[in-house]
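Kindly review both lines to help learners:
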Amino acid sequence: EFFVSELIERLELTLAGVLSTKNQTLVVEISGDFKLCADLILLEHLFLNLIQNASMYSSSDKNIYLKVEKYPDKISFSVRDEGIGIPESELERIFERFYRVDTNRSREQGGTGLGLSIVKHITKLHNGWIDVQSKLGEGSTFTINLPTK
């Protein structure tokens, strides 16, 4: 069990260098602080994956948004970027191991194609679920929902 603010502080510290190289900012929106009964290290890994992807597929000088909302039955974390987006035809497959939407760009940027499958696995370990919305040329939003019970 930990406070969500602790997770956010850890993310901000770890990501500061990565984001500054592209002059990007992580904009955090959270209404109050609250405890989460989950594995801090695994969730940190999950959000590092999502935010680093958001950075990688966004141009310089763009913001990346992390929004945390508490509901009676769940806590919802949304990571939104203003990047290249994901074609609708690819959305079903992005959580498959080793799957890459744009193999040429992925090869240039590095990565194994495992990040989103790890995100899905960690989410499931916490009995949560993921929602993805994306528009080509406008960006993507990954929402992780974790039950509070």
About this structure: The two ends are 12 Å apart (CA to CA). Strands lie at 2-3, 25-30, 35-36, 63-70, 74-80, 129-135, 139-147. Confidence is low (pLDDT under 50) at residues 103-108.
